[in-house]
Write a structure and sequence with these properties.
Largest sheet: 7 strands, antiparallel
Structural class: alpha+beta
Strand content: 15-25%
Number of strands: 11
Radius of gyration: 18 Å
Oligomer: single chain
Helix content: 25-40%
Order of helices and strands: HHEHEEHHEEHEEHEEEEHH
Amino acid sequence: MSTNEQSSANGFGHPDDSNGLNLASSALESSLAHDGFVVIPSILTSSEVSTLRDACASTVGLARTGQWPHLRTLPIQFPPWPKNPTSDIGIWGVQHLLHPQLAQSTTFAQSYFHPRIVTAATTLMSCRPDDLVLELYNLLVRPDANFALRWHRDDIPWDASAEEEQVRLTQPAFHTQWNLALYEDRSLIVMPESHLRARTTSERKADAMGTLPGEKVVQLSPGDAVFYNNNILHRGVYEKDVERMTLHGSMGHVRGGRLRARNVLQHAVGDWVEECHFDTLQGETKELAEGMRKRLVELGRESGDVGFSLEH
């Protein structure tokens, strides 16, 4: 079977298909650098979205019936979440989509290492594919109760001083993070350009769960992705009656080292990543995946205990 036939059989397009998008455009990098986020419309085709909806529905079914232990449970906002929670605990996310013991992990691997995702990542980080490090791939879902995340930066504590914030924000990001919507999604709220500055006095005094002047609701249609600097000020609002299946991923740059280690390894990816072999991937995609996995394993060995970025 040819590569094209294999891709068609599993519901994903040909690896060389750009879907009409100029993902190598310097405008993407400029938008991310200026605003802290950039929306890429229709990064997946409708057929690919349909395939992933099926895979996600199966996975969410396991999660809600206690058959998958790696979950984001209510009302906990940030890691660590309970291990092996009981099935009566509400959830708002499913962790470790690339875990080899997850039934749909091969489908999720095809989407994580999708050529359009990889091209977007290398463009936004101005790097080559062999600079990439495998990081996180999770699923954000409709919560069992209305739920919200407070304003935060993913790797800067909320009680950091303005000076501490600014020092951290001047360091290179060495990552790109994305939300890829399979249904309409208006859950992510960002403060544009806030990845470039410390919080203002009014932002520090404001309700961490409330609205802020200048905030922007990121609106995604099925197949759209928003890539963002995870130290932009952002929050989330999730409604129990609105279907949500949004793939939440990140890729790192090999130069990130310990700067990225805590962001990634606090999610316990190191517990299972050495078991991944990505045998269902083909050719250059498989070679890329194995190289990214090896670089993450090396990062874990070098970093040791990294702790957690944020408090609950």
